[in-house]
Specification:
Layout lengths: L3 H4 L2 E4 L6 H31 L6 H30 L3 E3 H34 L4 H4 L2 H26 L9 E2 L6 H7 L5 H35 L3 H29 L8 H25 L2 H15 L1
Parallel strand pairs: 1-3
Antiparallel strand pairs: 1-2
């Protein structure tokens, strides 16, 4: 156990802004976004559970995605809102470690899960005759379990190596939650091992699923273009556009935040980037999957009709 842990008892989160006049407006906006995130993702989970027509691999993975979004926004948002409204910036050393562990775990899990969802779409469109064999219930559960295992294993490594460091420069984190890059910037130890881990593990947990998604969608687009019927092309593409929209928004910001040298970090800019994948994307996911997905809209209509009878 490092002597650092016996000396440092808490960190101070500086949050998104120091301007008092902006804090109230930001609090209201973020609270609204958090409520919409919870309501939207809970609604998606309930619809999938209640409607038997959505009992397919695609919606099983979407259910996992919605649960993930609830988890990792709930890891950071309550403390962020508290910091804005009551100006209570302190977070204990152990609470900071737990917050970082779960946040990094959920982010890593989502990266892998989005890659698995693209594989599901690849099989459904490019290998439809083999889809039911390759994507049986046991396989779906195994793939989802792998994504969760990858995320939490990745986080164990990063959390262990981050909190073995000594933080002697300051205990003020220029961020709105405990994350790897801002903590490394506070350390007075050599963080080269941590940076190497970020880059190397980031290749497997971030770039590898992302490249799999790109390859999957190249095959998917080629296959869709070969479909002679315009209606058939539109139907096939509509099942992919929601997932593709989420991937572009999520991966663009998440990879930028983690898979690069710490020396290139700028906390003011990075705070804005991290807002995209930690706050905006979880809120937009239910909207994207609802507005762009006819099956989900029909399922919602069916459930509303049944409740009115």
């Amino acid at each position: 156990m490092s002597t650092n842990q016996s000396l440092l008892t808490e960190f101070l989160l500086l949050g998104l802004t120091e301007v008092p006049s902006i804090k109230i407006l930001l609090f209201i906006a973020l609270l609204l976004m958090y409520v919409l995130t919870l309501m939207g993702n809970i609604a998606i989970i309930l619809i999938i559970q209640l409607d038997k027509n959505l009992n397919t691999p695609m919606y099983f993975f979407l259910e996992n995605l919605s649960f993930l979004d609830i988890c990792y926004t709930s890891t950071t948002m309550p403390k962020m809102l508290e910091t804005l409204i009551v100006n209570h910036r302190a977070i204990s050393f152990s609470a900071c470690a737990f917050q970082m562990y779960f946040f990094v775990a959920f982010v890593g899990t989502e990266c892998v899960l989005l890659g698995i969802m693209s594989y599901d779409r690849f099989l459904a469109i490019c290998r439809p005759l083999h889809y039911s064999t390759f994507m049986c219930k046991k396989v779906c559960i195994a793939l989802a379990s792998i994504s969760w295992l990858c995320g939490f294993t990745n986080s164990v490594v990063h959390t262990a190596f981050t909190f073995r460091l000594r933080f002697c420069h300051s205990n003020m984190i220029s961020y709105y939650f405990c994350d790897i890059p801002p903590l490394l910037m506070l350390s007075c130890d050599d963080t080269s091992v941590n940076e190497t881990l970020l880059l190397t593990i980031g290749v497997f947990i971030g770039w590898t699923p992302f490249l799999c998604i790109i390859v999957s969608y190249i095959y998917i687009i080629v296959t869709i273009l070969k479909i002679k019927s315009t209606q058939g092309r539109n139907k096939s593409f509509s099942t992919c556009i929601s997932h593709l929209s989420v991937v572009i928004l999520y991966y663009g910001s998440a990879i930028f935040s983690y898979v690069r040298p710490v020396s290139t970090y700028s906390m003011d800019k990075d705070k804005l980037i991290s807002v995209l994948y930690s706050i905006v994307t979880p809120m937009l996911n239910p909207v994207i999957y609802t507005l762009k997905n006819k099956e989900v809209k029909r399922a919602i209509s069916r459930q509303m009709y049944l409740r009115q009878k």
